[in-house]
Amino acid sequence: MREALDPWPFVYGVYAVGLIGLAWLIIWAYRAMRRAEKRRDEMKRK
Amino acid sequence: MHIYANPKRFLTLASWLTPLLFWSGMVLTLGALAWGMFVVPPDRLMGETVRILFIHVPAAWLGMGGWTGIAIASGALLIWKHPLSGIAARAVAVPGMVFCALCLITGSIWGRPTWGTWWEWDGRLTSMLVLLFLYGGYIALSQASAREGGSYKIPAIFGLVGAINVPIINRSVVWWNSLHQPPSLTAGKSAIDGVFLWPLLVSVIGFSLLFGAVVLMRMRALIAEQQVEARLRRRALDDDANIDADTSNIVEAH
């Protein structure tokens, strides 16, 4: 009979992948937005 | 709806809606994940791996929901030709692709202890992988179209045609034999016990709010980029007009 795998490394792995992916997406979108809006505001002032 | 299709009105709305969606999404998502990790008991069949549900299901929902959003915005762009619809479709693409990839990765990790395999070429997994490729194609096409000044219609038609894959993903576990379980949530019915269902619903709402915040951030970035480009183009035209005027003055003086 095959011994069941320890589930915890898989659970931790999923939570790590999910949270890192989500954090990357939010930081990337926020920085891109700030950069684009800053460039537009600087151009308006010139 | 058309009132907010005006970019200026939209930016006013987005400036207070973005932090609202972000912070409410963060509270609900982190709360639901903590609930799923520390409070929910192990499932009778899946054991501790049931906790993966609270990330995998919202990722699948938003991966498919993202393309549905692209299709709706593309349809609106083709019918009403409003540029904000095109910006909305482009803004959804990257977050949709990220959630689609998260769904595939988390599903694969879940598959190993549950099914004994990381991957299976069955209807559900394969159609979800096709969706990931469709996202890649849409992003490349819409970026090329925006950069080269090509027709907005081509990515919009691609967005509409690609939507055929969404019901295929949804029905794949019913139409074909699959290792993946059949739908646990259908209209008005749930095969999931309340102890798992409530944190799952909170997680889906939380992730959806964060998705909305990211889409608004992308839309604001794309609008700002277009405004910069329009201003640069106007300046270049003004400079050309000044050069033409100077040249004609010189010619007249001679």
Overview of the structural elements:
- The complex is a heterodimer of chains A (46) and B (254).
- By secondary structure, chain A is mostly helical.
- Chain A is built from one helix and no strands.
- Chain B has one domain (19-183, 193-253): Four Helix Bundle (Hemerythrin (Met), subunit A) (Up-down Bundle).
- In chain B, 79% of the residues lie in helices and 2% in strands.
- In chain B, strands 1-2 form a two-stranded antiparallel sheet.
- In chain B, strand 1 and strand 2 form a beta hairpin.
- Chain B starts with 6 loop residues before the first helix and ends with a helix.
- The mean pLDDT of chain B is 89.
Protein topology:
The complex is a heterodimer of chains A (46) and B (254).
Chain A lengths: L7 H38 L1
Chain B lengths: L6 H33 L13 H28 L2 H33 L7 H26 L4 H10 L2 H11 L9 E2 L2 E2 L3 H60 L1
Antiparallel strand pairs in B: 1-2
Helix pairs in contact in B: 1-7, 2-3, 2-5, 2-7, 3-4, 3-7, 4-5, 4-6
What is the approximate shape of chain B?
elongated
The overall strand count of chain A is: 0
Largest sheet of chain B: 2 strands, antiparallel
On the 0 to 100 scale, the average pLDDT of chain A is 91
User: What percentage of amino acids of chain A are in beta strands?
Assistant: under 5%
Task: Give the number of domains of chain B.
Answer: 1
Helix content of chain A: over 70%
Shape of chain A: rod-shaped
What distance separates the N and C termini of chain B? 60 Å
Taking all residues together, what is the mean pLDDT of chain B? 89
User: Structural class, from helix and strand content of chain A?
Assistant: mainly alpha
